[in-house]
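Hi all, long-time lurker, first post. I run a small reading group and we've been trying to get comfortable going from sequence to structure in the token notation. Rather than ask abstract questions, I figured I'd post a concrete chain and ask someone more experienced to write out its structure so we can walk through it together at our next meeting. Sequence below, copied exactly:
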Amino acid sequence: MDGENRIILNVGGIRYETYKATLKKIPATRLSRLTEALANYDPVLNEYFFDRHPGVFAQVLNYYR
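-- Answer (accepted) --
Happy to help. Here is the structure in token form:
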């Protein structure tokens, strides 16, 4: 994946990698509006953390794809 367009989402300890363009497919959602200024962004790990069920998130990400 292209590092500049890639985004890492840590959901409940499971890391998912996808493209920013994938998350922008459904506008006006929290995932489509991710920015590094958000409190859940970790600049050291270069990832966003969400305290949610990772198994459920896999289905959410598949919907975006």
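A couple of things your group might point at:
Residues 6-64 form a domain with the Potassium Channel Kv1.1; Chain A fold (CATH 3.30.710.10).
The chain has a mean pLDDT of 90.
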